[in-house]
Specification:
The protein is mainly alpha-helical. It folds into two domains: 220 residues, MFS general substrate transporter like domains (Growth Hormone, Chain: A, Up-down Bundle), CATH 1.20.1250.20; 68 residues, no CATH class. It starts with a helix and ends with a helix.
């Protein structure tokens, strides 16, 4: 067990302490644009794949159940049927239920192996550099897209998609890529310009999300799912080539001896991650409780944040909206813009007067109000209003 003096040491060392602790010097990366194009391309792949797959699964399930009602994501149809006892409405809810179950399996198949791959690649990037986790995640994206393309072209069973999602999550997922991007920015910046570079990362992320949601509907409607997945594959290959040949390494790889030492102590790194939440501190007896409570809040928030995507898409495809692919993309893009603008304005105006903790509490409350408006919405206007509360 570490002594109290070791536990009180700062996580970030000062510059004059680097040599004493054998910290490798930072490589000189003077380019203004580094990891942002890779992030833009990967998020474009991720968002377009998510929206396209949700709609593709809905269509496949509808075909398997011989459903030909008005609620289809490929065209804007009459959606005037609101009678809950109508056979068409009942059949549509069954399609929704089956499609939702498939989306749940996809999420679990990506989340469970992704937790361990992110923890491992995050720590391993301190040894081998930041580019390996970036490359492995993009390779997983390419593999998953190829599986989706084969399923679509050859009309393979839906469960085959689970294989591609699982294999891609094992070698990295979106959280791994985001972790590597922010670590990359931390490596090449100082305390003076780090905030600005993080804002640039956030802007690239936001632009990519808006663009992929806007374009996905037009691509699906105009070209179909096969060409949509082909375009996504091209975007992933472009990201791979950029990382391989144009992105400089930001963290110098360590020696083979230290790399081997890391692999031999891999289990101890995992155990230390969980020890943080189990170790009792006599000087702060409520420390473990507060950490576990914070972890629970993050877990619940993360489940709602990640799970809302599938539910939101199916909700907008269902009665009384029955949105087509184009309208679905437009609605989701405008939702994201409203939520982002509201979040920025609320943070800018309230953080100075309330502080961080009350701001987090207000954010959680606004999240609840947003979901409540979404649940009772029977018009697109109320959905937009609810998203405006999502700060």
């Amino acid at each position: 067990m570490e002594s109290s003096s070791e536990q009180s040491q700062p996580l970030l060392l000062r510059k004059d302490e680097g040599r004493a602790r054998n910290v490798l010097p930072k490589p000189t990366v003077t380019r203004r644009i580094t990891v942002e194009p890779a992030l833009f391309l990967y998020i474009f792949y991720y968002g377009t794949t998510l929206l396209a797959t949700q709609q593709y699964i809905y269509i496949r399930v509808a075909q398997q159940l011989n459903y030909t009602g008005p609620s289809t994501p490929v065209s804007q149809n009459d959606c005037s049927i609101v009678n809950t006892s109508d056979p068409v409405y009942i059949e549509a809810q069954h399609v929704q239920s089956v499609a939702s179950n498939w989306n749940l399996l996809f999420s679990l198949c990506s989340l469970l192996p992704g937790i361990f791959s992110t923890l491992f690649l995050g720590a391993y990037s301190d040894v081998v550099g930041r580019k390996p986790p970036l490359l492995s995640t993009v390779l997983g994206a390419i593999l998953s897209t190829i599986v989706l393309l084969f399923v679509n072209v050859f009309d393979l069973p839906i469960w085959v998609i689970l294989v591609g999602i699982f294999l891609s999550a094992v070698i990295g997922q979106v959280h791994t890529f985001m972790m590597a991007c922010f670590s990359y920015v931390t490596d090449i910046t100082s305390e003076q310009n780090r905030s600005f570079r993080i804002v640039v990362i956030e802007v690239a992320l936001g632009l990519s999300v808006v663009l992929c949601t806007l374009c996905s509907g037009f691509i699906i409607k105009g070209l179909g799912f096969t060409w949509t997945y082909a375009i996504i594959l091209f975007v992933s290959l472009t990201a791979l080539l950029y990382i391989l040949f144009l992105l400089p390494e930001s963290h110098l790889p360590q020696s083979r001896q230290r790399s081997f030492a890391f692999r031999s102590k891999m289990l101890s790194y995992f155990s230390k991650s969980f020890t943080v939440y189990t170790k009792q501190d006599e000087a702060y007896p409520w420390r473990r409780f507060h950490l576990l409570l914070s972890l629970f809040v993050i877990f619940v928030y993360g489940m709602s944040a990640l799970g809302q995507s599938n539910a939101r898409t199916l909700f907008l495809l269902n009665f009384p909206f029955c949105l087509g692919s184009v309208m679905l993309g437009l609605v989701l893009a405008l939702q994201y813009l409203l939520g982002s603008v509201a979040s920025i304005l609320a943070t800018k105006c309230l953080q100075r007067h309330l502080g961080d903790l009350p701001l987090v509490q207000m954010g959680l409350l606004s999240w609840f109000v947003s979901f409540l408006c979404f649940a009772v919405a029977r018009s697109i206007t109320l959905i937009y209003i609810g998203k405006s509360f999502n700060t």
